[in-house]
Write a structure and sequence with these properties.
single chain, 8 helices, 2 domains, alpha/beta, globular, four-stranded parallel sheet, two-stranded antiparallel sheet, Rossmann fold
Length: 210
């Protein structure tokens, strides 16, 4: 059986001494699935949506670990690059001046409410796609996006909480509170074990594995 995971640095395993101790691989061991982890540091939710739609047919189970609602991306003739409004472009290390100008502008002039609406829309679109294609999936939240004041009731009520663990009150941050973290704030081995156990428990409660 094949497991696909997508997410940002918390799913990639940033700051772990051994990337194979990231929660996707621990989960795969627990449920006896072969794991493909396509998470990458700083990646946007649009990346996750696009990647899952492109790859879903190849997998039996998909776990999507959504990133911060404001993390987004832009593209030019040289490719796609990520922007995090409000962070003044500190995640971007490229040398192209016009990219930095755009990052600076978007960081200073953006609407969190609009970006949060886009985040909810991505969730609804992806859960609909996976349901229509008869794919088993789990969604989780890395950052606590469910607690922001921009919650849109009309969109939120369309999210299927059976397959979104912790919606609307929990994220990886709550699950790993108080656990050791690296210098950049990523939870380490104990946190990854906790996340894997949470997902494993939910999958078993759904009856997908014995």
């Amino acid at each position: 059986m094949q497991l696909l995971t997508v997410g940002d640095s918390f799913t990639y395993g940033e700051e772990l001494s051994d990337i194979n101790q990231a929660w996707p691989f621990l989960l795969g061991q627990q449920i006896d699935y072969t794991v493909t982890n396509l998470a990458l540091p700083s990646k946007s939710n649009n990346y996750m949506l696009r990647t899952v739609i492109d790859q879903a047919d190849n997998y039996d189970l998909i776990v999507v670990a959504w990133s911060h609602f404001a993390r987004t991306e832009y593209a030019d003739e040289l490719g796609v690059y990520d922007i995090w409004p409000g962070n003044l472009g500190n995640l971007f290390t490229g040398e192209l001046t016009y990219r930095k100008d755009l990052i600076d502008y978007v960081s200073r002039h953006h609407s969190d409410q609009y970006l949060y609406t886009q985040y909810l829309t991505n969730i609804i679109l992806l859960q609909s796609y996976l349901t229509q294609h008869n794919k088993r999936y789990i969604m989780i939240d890395a950052f606590g996006n469910t607690k922001v004041r921009y919650l849109n009731d009309r969109l939120s009520e369309q999210i299927d909480s059976r397959y979104y663990i912790g919606w609307p009150n929990e994220s990886m941050m709550e699950w790993t509170y108080g656990f050791p973290k690296g210098p950049c704030g990523h939870f380490l081995e104990q946190g990854h074990r906790q996340v894997a156990e949470k997902i494993n428990e939910h999958i078993r409660n759904l009856g997908w594995v014995s």
